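Weekly sync, protein design subgroup
Attendees: M.S., D.O., the rotation student, P.L. (late)

Item 1: inverse folding check
M.S. brought a backbone from last month's batch and wanted to see whether the design step gives back something sensible before we order anything. D.O. pointed out we never logged the input encoding, so this time it goes straight into the notes. Structure tokens as presented (168 positions):
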């Protein structure tokens, strides 16, 4: 089955989503990236069932992802993708992946390069599968979240979930 067939069969599949913001400085009121992610996912017809704000702590981020994977088709983590010592979201997420989809990070960095130049190489954005559910980690800036969702994740989310569930 080709891409067109996959997308046709995936149809209007809607996802249950969890949004996790990792930060030591943001509050629920100042979490713009979480707000942007929620708005974009809901406008695309998906259902956001939870929003969490977790400190930059590897064990706490991993535990939050595991907890949300129990009920969400997609867990979106914003923040913690850079090169700094507190940027541990990638380690937390990738340690859980059954399968990584490196094309997401590659395309994200390519699109980011058009907007921010060579600083795009500092991003470790990632997408992977855990028992047929998707975990996506994006940089914490609202612009990066918007780019990742509008250009990459939302257009392919139904297709991704269709394939990850083995429903071909």
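Designed sequence read out in the meeting:
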């Amino acid at each position: 089955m080709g891409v067109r067939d996959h997308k046709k069969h995936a149809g209007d599949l809607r996802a249950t989503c969890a949004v996790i913001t990792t930060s030591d400085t943001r509050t629920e009121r100042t979490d713009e990236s979480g707000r942007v992610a929620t708005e974009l996912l809901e406008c695309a017809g998906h259902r956001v069932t939870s929003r969490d704000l977790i400190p930059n702590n590897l064990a706490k981020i991993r535990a939050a992802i595991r907890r949300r994977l129990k009920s969400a088709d997609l867990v979106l983590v914003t923040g913690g993708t850079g090169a700094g010592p507190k940027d541990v979201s990638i380690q937390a997420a990738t340690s859980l992946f059954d399968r990584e989809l490196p094309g997401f990070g590659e395309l994200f960095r390519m699109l980011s390069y058009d907007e921010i130049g060579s600083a795009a190489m500092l991003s470790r954005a990632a997408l992977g599968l855990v028992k047929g559910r998707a975990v996506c980690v994006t940089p914490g800036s609202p612009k990066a979240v918007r780019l990742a969702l509008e250009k990459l994740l939302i257009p392919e989310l139904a297709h991704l979930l269709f394939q990850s569930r083995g429903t071909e």
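Discussion: The two ends are 8 Å apart (CA to CA). The first helix runs from residue 3 to 10.
Action: P.L. to compare against the previous round before Friday.
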